[in-house]
Amino acid sequence: MATSSTLQTLTPNITFTPDWSPGLGGGVWSTAVLLTNYFQTHPQTFTEMLSKKSALELGSGNGYLSVVLSTIVKDLNITCTDTPSHLPLISKTFSENSLSSSPSRTITVSSLLWGTETLPSTFDFIFGTDVVYRSHLYLPFLSCLTSHLSPLGTAIIGICMTDTTSDFFEECKKANFRYQRISDSKGCDGMRGVTFSLYVIEWKP
């Protein structure tokens, strides 16, 4: 889990206050640090890919990653989701960073229970970290991805390899997705070669 000093060094322009009262999503875990670093070291890539597009964060917890991405892609329409108990914390994180909907973008905070609820649209980009850390989450997560990833969309997830087994990737293939690990050389200094990884997931051609 990331410490306050780590987050201050990584994202000095972002205000974030951990709050564990809603549950495990109250802090920023190591895979979220990895994805944050990836966003911040590839700003042009994400701006070109997502300008005026739509993004969905799954299992947001506290909204930190969505805030990071919103500060990079300033005209991104973003929907930040989790269970109802986490929504006040997500809204608080956006508010603390003075981020809200504007003429150039929309910011939506919404409940989304995987495999049970669906949103009324698909998205160009879906992201999340520590979203498949238990095997019982694999199929609900992939059901959600199937419902919400647009035909030409891209998803990036951060996982801990000691928690997520090869069964998840087998289920990805069964669900008609292809996946690729993002090279360690594009990851986060100090985390290369350890158990945290980012994966790109897309529809099979």
Explain briefly what this protein structure is.
The protein is built from 7 helices and 7 strands, in the order αααβαβαββαβαββ. With 205 residues, it is α/β, with parallel strands linked by helices.
Measured as a percent range, the helix fraction is 25-40%
CATH class label: Alpha Beta
Rounded to an integer in angstroms, the radius of gyration calculated over CA atoms is 16 Å
Q: Tell me, what's the shape?
A: globular
Biggest sheet details = 7 strands, mixed
| Spatial sequence of strands, sheet with the most strands | 3-2-1-4-5-7-6
CATH topology: Rossmann fold
Q: What is the distance, rounded to the nearest whole angstrom, between the alpha carbons of the first and last residues?
A: 37 Å
Mean pLDDT: 90
Quick one: CATH superfamily? Answer: Vaccinia Virus protein VP39
How many domain units?
1
From the helix content, strand content and strand pairing, which structural class follows?
alpha/beta
Order of helices and strands: HHHEHEHEEHEHEE
- Beta content: 15-25%
Number of strands: 7
CATH architecture: 3-Layer(aba) Sandwich
What are the main properties of this structure?
205 residues, alpha/beta
